Amino acid sequence: SLFDEPLAIAVQGLGPRQRVTLRTSLRDETGELFQASAHYQAGDDGELDLARCPALPGGSFSGLEPMGLLWALQPQKPFWRLIKRDVQSPFLLQLEVLEGHGERPGRLLAQVQHERAFLRDGVRRVPVREGRIRATLFLPP
């Protein structure tokens, strides 16, 4: 998905009303780790859709926040910021579903890796250097 587009996150195959922790992580271009987590409870059908299910207290955020696992990413190194310098390569986002809640969630139930790209396919990147102006022009296909 593109970095500025919403990402729909859902989990299927859980037990009815099963309590799980969802955790996201990514490494920036320098290798620094950013993480966020949230506690959820699946519905009666064993499904969890972050657009409809609020996060329970105790994680990086709580309430109905479909993109919370992305905006709540925090660095492990104090005062570090998530900055993308090379927009031609995507961020690789790891998403894990862990059993239970608490300081040390239980076993890993599922995991997936997702690319968050900054440029749509076919976009041309043109450096601009004119006098004292330094910029980059992005042209659609």
Task: For this entry, give a set of tags.
141 residues; mainly beta; Immunoglobulin-like; five-stranded antiparallel β-sheet; two-stranded antiparallel sheet; 1 helix; 3% helix; elongated
Provide a compact summary of the structure:
The protein has one helix and nine strands, in the order ββββαβββββ.
Task: Write structural notes for this entry.
This protein has 141 residues and is mostly beta strands. The chain has a single domain (10-139), classed as Acyl-CoA thioester hydrolase/BAAT N-terminal domain (Immunoglobulin-like, Sandwich). It contains one helix and nine strands; from the N terminus they run E-E-E-E-H-E-E-E-E-E. The protein has one helix at 68-71, and strands at residues 10-11, 19-27, 33-41, 48-49, 74-75, 91-99, 108-116, 124-130, 133-139. It has a five-stranded antiparallel β-sheet with strand order 5-3-2-6-7. Strands 1-4 form a two-stranded antiparallel ribbon. The radius of gyration is 18 Å and the shape is elongated. The two termini are 17 Å apart.
Q: What class do helices, strands and sheet pairing give?
A: mainly beta
Spatial sequence of strands, sheet with the most strands: 5-3-2-6-7
CATH superfamily: Acyl-CoA thioester hydrolase/BAAT N-terminal domain
- Overall, the morphology is elongated
At CATH level 3, the topology is Immunoglobulin-like
- What is the count of structural domains? 1
Helix content: under 10%
Radius of gyration: 18 Å
Write the H/E string, N to C: EEEEHEEEEE
Q: State the name of the first-level CATH class.
A: Mainly Beta
Largest sheet: 5 strands, antiparallel
- Helix count equals 1
The CATH architecture can be given as Sandwich
Number of strands: 9
Poorly predicted runs: none
- Mean of residue pLDDT? 94
Cα-to-Cα separation, first versus last residue:
17 Å
Give the amount of beta strand, in percent: 35-45%
